[in-house]
Amino acid sequence: MAYIHVKRIGDKNYYTLRISIRKGNKVITKDLAYLGGDLSKVNIDDLIKKYGKEIRKSFHKIKKVLDSNYYIEKAGKLKPKKDEYFSKKQIIEIEAVKLHYSKEFSKLDELTKEESYEMFIINFAVNTTSMEGNTITFKEAYNLFKEDRAPKKPLRDIYDLVNTKNVIEFLQKEKPEIDSNLIEIIHDLLLENIDNRKGFRNHEIRIFGQPFKPSPAKYVKVDIELLLRWFDENKNKIHPLALATFFHHKFENIHPFSDGNGRTGRVIMNYLLGQAGYPPLIISRIYRQEYLKAMNKADNSLKINLLNIDLAYYTDLINFIYSQFKMSYWDNFLI
Q: Which tops the pLDDT comparison, 213 or 176?
């Protein structure tokens, strides 16, 4: 297996293209090439010409490292504004993603983009629905959407995936403005053939195992309107990734529906990112506990009021969403 090895000397990183080979019970490593201290200057085509055989199986991982570093270097030269919620390093890496998305991915031919985005949607659908207990695997979802082969799973789980795909495609096509009506439409489409309770809830609910208290039923619509007004007032003041994160958390705290709040909230978060010119993200089911823990900690910020932002409680969630944004982009949109 080939990979890029980093060695830190003083305050600088130096890189080599390294290969590891298993011989019996031993793993032998060998440096193939010295890559210098700036990966943004390394050309993947040159590596393929010289070491094509050795790097073939690890090509995508190596390309991810090289491309991300190249765009991090470019984003750093643009000197992005200092941010209240992200460190300088985080902002540069976020803007590197946006830069690659607009300069590379968005300029691919339409068919390649469509195929890549469809794979993203399948991946997103599997991960977001599994947060709520859906057991359909990625392979089963792929067969469902690409080969029309339904898995032997409950119909609810199948509709869960189909509805998620339909909602995302609807938003992509129509590009409606975000308002309370759109929030209800997204929810209704997600719960089609699953739950007949449509519209904002008019009854009280308790979320077992979660410490937060959802908005009282009579305040649900008011709180949604407050949140939307707050979003409107801050969309040119707060970085889009931070703003989408805050919106997502506050929306989940309102918990405006009887069921499907998490799925609805994650779709809306991505829609808000898209409206601001940023790619969507996937919160991986692998990190479900870290996600819930960060969300629960952020709940403390809302003890003052719904719109309060206290970084003592929000920092973990901001850092978590940033890491998922960065990781899911390079895993899903690098061609």
A: 176
